[in-house]
Amino acid sequence: MPLRTSNSRVDAVLREEYIGSVTNRICYPGVSSCITITGVLPTGLVGVHITIATEADVIDTALMALKTGGGGSCTSFYVAGAISVFKDQTTNETFDKRKKIKDKIQRIVNKHASVRFYDTSLQQDVHIFVELNGNAPTFSYAQALGNTVTGFTYPEIANRTPINLNQFQLR
After folding, report:
1. CA distance between the termini of the chain
2. Looking at residues 119-140, what average pLDDT do you find?
């Protein structure tokens, strides 16, 4: 499946194999075996939603698009999603371990960036939300069951579980 770009500039819903750059909020819907990568800029966020079936060349293209979309100047990247499930089920041997994911982000996007990880595998199928508050991101998730995300309209889901930044593991 080819990489697709979100046309949103303020808020975005980034479905599987979508990439986007926004000034305010990103929703990554239906994360059950996927990972998301979000870069934080002073004026916005860049992100991509990667599945276990995403091919190596598409991942490389996505990371290059993150770089050219502003991610090249990001000093922090956050990988959130079903990391344990992703590592076990992906056939992409260049992106199947946290170290390999970190190394590839640093090699393609920004060699000086920190890369942090948060695993939602135990929560199963969730929507992941990232919001830019000042210069810092806030992360949360909501169970997908009972919380529909329709098309590319940013959902207003109130019952979210916060993910504190200190819960992300630095690799």
Report:
1. 29
2. 94
